[in-house]
Amino acid sequence: MANRFTAADPAADDTGLRLSNGGTDVLFDVLTLAGCDLAETAWEQHLVLHFADGHRIGRGTSGFDLSELPWTSEWQAEKAFFLRMIDTALGRHGWDRLRYDPPLVAASLATYRAMVAQFTPIPSARPEDWRTAPRPELLARCPAHGLFQGELGCRQCDPGIQPIG
Ligand SMILES: [Zn+2]
Q1: Ligand 1 centre distance from Cα of residue 136 (Å)
Q2: pLDDT of residue 161 exceeding 90
Q3: 36 C-alpha vs ligand 1 centroid, how far in Å?
Q4: pLDDT surpassing 60 at residue 128
Q5: Could you tell me the distance, in angstroms and rounded to a whole number, from the CA of residue 83 to the centre of ligand 1?
Q6: Which of 37, 34, 69 is CA-nearest to residue 50?
Q7: Ligand 1 centroid vs 165 CA: distance in angstroms?
């Protein structure tokens, strides 16, 4: 099983970022570690929660196209936040809280950063509008790891995706 991440061209087989389930777990871990300490607006918090809760249910089908995110008229600031989150992850933000050493994720982050950088969002009005603030309990921090609890609890406390031993 692989998860495929694309940028507005999901029909083209040779584009995008393809990751194993393990590679996806790591990518989402490091983006969540970075994002929880950066998010300020409702949209930013929703984006971080997307990764915090991501690839927990429906493993192997958690890839998405960047055009599927509910970009708003503020998309330039939203895209800038996304890039800042990736850059912060590339700076190994919070990696001391990981239970493993992620040597391969830097290449995934660099590929993903290039995809986001070249992508031009088109604002959309979707039911899952991210302009409304997430419920406060979703933003509660894990006492051990500092991550948003989200719908499914801190992802670093989840034995299903973390090599707890
Ligand atoms: Zn935790």
Answers
A1: 17
A2: no
A3: 12
A4: yes
A5: 25
A6: 69
A7: 15
